[in-house]
Structures are given as C-alpha cells and as structure tokens.
Amino acid sequence: MLDITYIRHNPQDVIQRLNKRGHDYSATVHKVLELDKAKRALQSELDSLFAKQNVISKDTGQLYKEGKIDEAEAKKQQSLDIKAKSKQIQENLIAIETEINEMLFHLPNALHDSVKAGKSEADNEYLYSKGDVNALHHKNTPHWDISEALDLIDFEAGATIAGSGFAVFKHHGAKLQRALVDYFLDFNTARGYTEYIPPFVVHSESATGTGQLPDKDNQMYHIEKDDLYLIPTAEVPLTNIYRQRILKESELPIKLTGHSPCFRREAGSYGKDVKALNRLHQFEKVEIVQITLPDLSYDALDEMVKHVEDLLLSLELPFRVLRLCGGDTGFASAITYDFEVYSAGQKRWLEVSSVSNFESFQSKRMQLRYKSENKKIKNCHTLNGSSLALPRIYAALLENNYQNKAVTLPLSLQPYYKGEQIK
Question: Which of 384, 167, 367 is nearest to 284 (CA)?
C-alpha cells in the first residue's frame, strides 16, 4: 500500500511513477488527496472540540463548587452538545478513512525510476544473456514428446483426475522433480536462507497483505466454505510469517526459502504457448524471500538476482534477463527482473523466475515494521524471487539435454538424482 504522507507531499511523482503502468492514475490520486484533506480538516475540528470540552468540564466543576447551579447546568448542556457533535465527526472520520484505505488497497505500487513505461511484455527491457543458444539449434524434440518416450509425465491421467492443466509425474519423472526441489533448497540454504514449510492455504488477510488480493482474486482458487485461498506461490505464507510484527533492527535482514505447490486458475490462457509443462494449474516452486532495512533493499535485490543467475548457471541452462516495463510489472512490485531459459525443443524463451522488490508496499499492508536504533517504528522492505519454478526448468532440462534416447543431467543435479542420465 502506498504511503499517504508521501502521496500528500509528492503527488506528481507518485502519478508519474504509477502512470508508467500504462494507465492514467491521476484522478484516483487526486481523489485520495481530496479525501485526505477532508479527513485532516475533520480531525482538526475534532481535536478543537475535545480541547473545548475539557475546558468546559473544568468550568462546570468549578461552577458547581461555587453554587452557580444554573450556569453549571448550562455548561453541562454545552458539553453534551459537543459530545454529540464529536460523535458525528468521529463517524464521518471512520467513513472517510475506510474510503481512503479502500482506494489505497486498489492502487498498485509506484514503480522505481529505472522501470520504463510500457503496456505489455513486448515493451520489456532486455538486459543480458548467458549461455550458448546456438549449440542447441540442432535439438528439436519438445518436452512432451521426450516425456512420452521416457514415460516421465502422464498428462492424460492428470486431465482424468482434475481436468486440463494438471499432470501426473511418475517413476523417473517424479524422481527428477524431487531432485530439483532438494537441489534448489540446498542451494538456497547454503547462501544463508532459512528453510520453512508453510501452510499451502491462506486467509484473505494474508493474501491482501502481499497484494494478491484484490488484484488476483479471479486467478486464485477459493475455498468458499472456509474462506481460504490455495496459495499461488510460497511468497504469500512466507512473507506473512512476520505480519503485524515489530522487529528489531538487529534482526534484519531476514532470509527465508520454502518449497510449495502453487495453484493458479490461469483463466483465459489457451494455445501452444501453454501446452504441457509450459503452464499448469498446479506446479512446484521453490521461493526465496527477504525482509530488509529500507536503505539496503536494492543491495538485497542485486544479491537475489545474482543468486538466481548462479543457480541457472549451475544447471547449465542458457538464460536471459529482462527488466519488466511498467505495464508488465506486478501489482505489488516496484521493480521486477525476469529470468527466461531457452527451450531447444520449442525454439523459444520460457520464464522461470521473477525477482522483485516491493519496497514498503507489502509491509504497510501487513503492518510489518521494525524499531530503529533511535527507537522509531518504520516499515520494512520486502523482496521475493523464484528459485526456481520447476515446470519450465524441467522442460528446458529435457529439451536441451536429450540425445540418443536419454537425457544427460547437469553435474550439479546428478548427486540429487543419483544418476547421470534419464533413459
């Protein structure tokens, strides 16, 4: 959630950074400021009434002591009139505060200065790539054919059990999935992240805290009877571990990692780009989260980008890094870097990780704060990244390493799979 004080003092800066998302937010920002001005005027009037009531109360007591009953009763009536007026102002204040908060909850995060304006992924900014894509150009077998040949994944069984967009991993296919999860977690914990196993469902307060609600309401699976949501990513429960907490400055940064299934309705997704593992309603992902001091969050972002880069290099997968434009950056993010691996069988790039800095957007919604050394209470900054999303990593590993009816695994993964090849 954006900070109302910052909006009040920097309205044009906020509007300019919001508008890079490809939509004009000026009317909403000005409406928020108008309501904020009305709220502060009411609060000032209320404070004056309270001060006046205190004076009248003292005068009333003194008049009673002096035996001036009629004057005391008149003062008492004035006090009752002020009390009634104060009650009405307080009700109006609550209504205005509710309206302001509702508008702020629906406003996305203001983008970092380095994020370019744009409307869609076509406007994303290419930064750099690593790995030899040319060496893979002779490989043309897509992962769904490899999977069928090696009997790794049963997409038909997944559809029979739950419908399209679900898969059953079996035998060596399930073993590879487990090896990837274990490797990613070990890679993360070796870099200072503490491993967690969080709940895989959250209530609406948690989903609102990290910004999935109200923005992604129609993309989340909702259990109506219990009013719970299946998580779209482990970021949601991991970050909410510290919701409504005041941390000590010495506790920061906090670094968390966790593996979870992820559930996404992916409404409106059709065509060849979502075939097989390219897009599933349920998939596995390992996440990294950091909670930091505000002035260190961009150092943490650079560290997390390097972390994902090192992980992909260890898997020997060609990849490229993009900085998302305003229109493609997520609702809660101030800046996002996407990692895409090259898919030899499909001759295209597949997104496998997003690394984002949310600055104080999530922490304000969650009331996640810290006490500084000078005893002031301030909002933390939060960041998260995929480390990594498994389906497209899995697809690229199969497609890029398939030869002579076998998939040769990268050296880093072989101890976890307990073998060199899948055949």
Answer: 167
Residues 6+ apart with CB under 8 A from 217: none
Angle 297-314/172-190 helices, nearest 10 degrees?
Answer: 140
> Over the stretch 186-202, which tens digit does the pLDDT of each residue have?
999 999 999 999 999 99
Q: What is the pLDDT of residue 153?
A: 98
Q: Name the DSSP letter for residue 10.
A: -
Closest listed residue to residue 338, CA positions, set 351, 319, 347: 351
Q: How far is CA 39 from CA 36, 52, 96, 365, in A?
A: 5, 20, 6, 20
Residue among 333, 313, 422 at smallest CA distance from 382: 333
- Write the CA distances from 154 to 24, 48, 151, 166, 170, integer angstroms: 46, 71, 8, 9, 8
Least confident of 150-154, 195-199, 212-216, 255-259: 212-216
In angstroms, what CA-CA distances link 343 with 25, 336, 338? 38, 22, 16
Tens-digit pLDDT profile for residues 128-179: 999 999 999 899 999 999 999 999 999 999 999 999 999 999 999 999 999 9
Half-sphere exposure of 150 (CA within 13 A, CB side): 28
Radius of gyration (C-alpha) of the chain in whole angstroms: 27
Closest CA to 234 of 211, 203, 257, 218: 257
Q: Which two tokens stand for residue 383?
A: 């960041």
Residues 395, 400, 403, CA angle at the centre, nearest 5°? 115
| Degrees, nearest 5: CA angle 334-336-337 | 155
CA dist 16 and 21 (Å) reads 10
